[in-house]
Amino acid sequence: MGQGQTKSPQVILMGLDNSGKTTFLARLLTGQVMDTSPTIGFNVGSFNVDKRTSLTIWDIGGQKNMIPNWRYYLDDSKALVFMVDSSDPSRMREAQKALRKVLSDERLRGVPLMVLANKADQPNAMTIQEISKQLGMSNYPHLQWQIQACSALQGVGLRQAFLSVAKLIKKR
Ligand code: G3D
């Protein structure tokens, strides 16, 4: 890293499989997504939110066997982005459990959370109020968090989401 450059704040992107993380990264990084490592199973990429803020994104598989590996990436993270499929109410409970598990990790204490309610383009998409309720957000009174609807497929709400993440990080 050259002189005068600061380390980019690291943001972790998590979510169950099929929530849209890969699509989201592909959109955000305009094709610069690195291949999923077959042994560890994550994608990583950098995204410039503005001239000063670059966010590193970790896409960590939500498949059951990947969950233990999430923990290795929590050190040094400045924000957590948790993606849910708003059009799939049948997996909200699973998402709620996964989020609870991640948030119980000490390394994430004080780290702000952005919930991305993806697939907002779907006619049956749940409202952000409903998703907040299903994720049990009222169980985290001390957590600094936000929720935002987006569509990774249509590219709607992505930039706004990351501007909000950058703001959450600066506020800390
Ligand atoms: P993952 O990386 O979290 O596992 P993917 O999820 O990015 O692979 O997306 C899973 C499926 O959801 C894909 O469909 C993808 O096209 C779709 N998807 C992702 N984001 C959106 C969105 O915003 N709106 C809609 N309608 N669909 C979305 P396929 O059919 O390829 O499996």
Rg over alpha carbons = 15 Å
Tally the structural domains. 1
Number of helices: 5
Helix and strand element order:
EHEEHEHEHEH
Q: Any guess at the CATH architecture?
A: 3-Layer(aba) Sandwich
CATH topology group: Rossmann fold
Coarse morphology: globular
Strand order of the largest sheet: 2-3-1-4-5-6
Distance between the termini: 24 Å
Output mean pLDDT.
79
Bound molecules: guanosine-3'-monophosphate-5'-diphosphate
Structural class: alpha/beta
The CATH homologous superfamily is termed P-loop containing nucleotide triphosphate hydrolases
Write the layout of secondary structure elements.
Blueprint: E1 10-15, H1 21-28, E2 42-48, E3 54-60, H2 67-70, E4 77-85, H3 92-103, E5 113-118, H4 128-134, E6 145-149, H5 158-171
Parallel strand pairs: 1-3, 1-4, 4-5, 5-6
Antiparallel strand pairs: 2-3
The structure holds guanosine-3'-monophosphate-5'-diphosphate.
Could you list some keywords that capture this structure?
binds guanosine-3'-monophosphate-5'-diphosphate; Rossmann fold; 6-stranded mixed sheet; 6 strands; 172 residues; disordered N terminus; alpha/beta; 5 helices; single chain
